Amino acid sequence: MSDGLGFARLLRAHRGRARLTQEELAERARLSVRTLRDLERGRTRYPHRASVRRLAAALELTGEDRLAFEATPPPRPLTALPGAPASPPAAPAVLSLPGRDPSPGRDPFPERGAFSGRDPFSGRDPFPGRVTFPARGPSREWGPSPEWALPPVSDSVTLSRLLPLREAEDAVMIASGGGRPAVVTVTGPAGTGKTTLAVQCAHLLRRRTGMDALFVDLGRDRRDARELRAALRMARLGLAASPASGGRCLLLVDGADGRRDGSAAGRVPPLLTLGFTGIVVTGREPIAGLVPSRRIVLTDPG
Question: What burial class does residue 132 get, using C-beta atoms within 10 Å of its C-beta: 0-12 exposed, 13-18 middle, 19+ buried?
Fold first, then answer.
């Protein structure tokens, strides 16, 4: 159904199932009540892709329900430029990551991961709200030390990993703050790409928001819980006044596998009170007593 009416009906249905008022859903999705009402009445012909994704996250939609929800809004017609082909090029099956800033033609911060490419479901930019940095960005005096630097990121995101990547990013983006971070757990057997997914999420958030990120591999870091917390606390305080990130910081904890090393999982809970915006934890099994904002389970290599 055109003009957003089909999406309006679907949005009302999902809100009804979630038993949320318009005010409650608007607050969760960080939209104005007026915007939500216009969406539910079909007055907005072409809902903004970022708004649709925020609503999907606020409604806690997953799997096929989320894919259907995000695919329902009609895409905004593209205006062809003189001499341009009548139809846009076919969307690639793989999204390139990292990539260059399309505006100036190069990445001003080559150490960052840059998410580029089109959404294979819509053929459009999957993250229209992302930050585009100037061709010559200011020198960054802020940033994590090499000890906490993110590892190199994979150069592609397969279709099977697109939805989990979105869910992890959404959970951090809608974090309420106030000292309570969004906690995302990524679990699954060895070889399913848990670390890759988590690192891609961290690079993507850095690209979109300028958010700083710290990385710690519990499989290699032998400090006990107290020493690790103290070291990360100092690293976090060093980034708190970063003008680029606005004080926002993501912590990626890799290898929190209680079955392989019980001390690894036990070092995670003390890190929850360090003021991180979000914490992404990877491991083969969930950590007992840790209640995540979003739980992602990988069952195959993707």
Answer: exposed
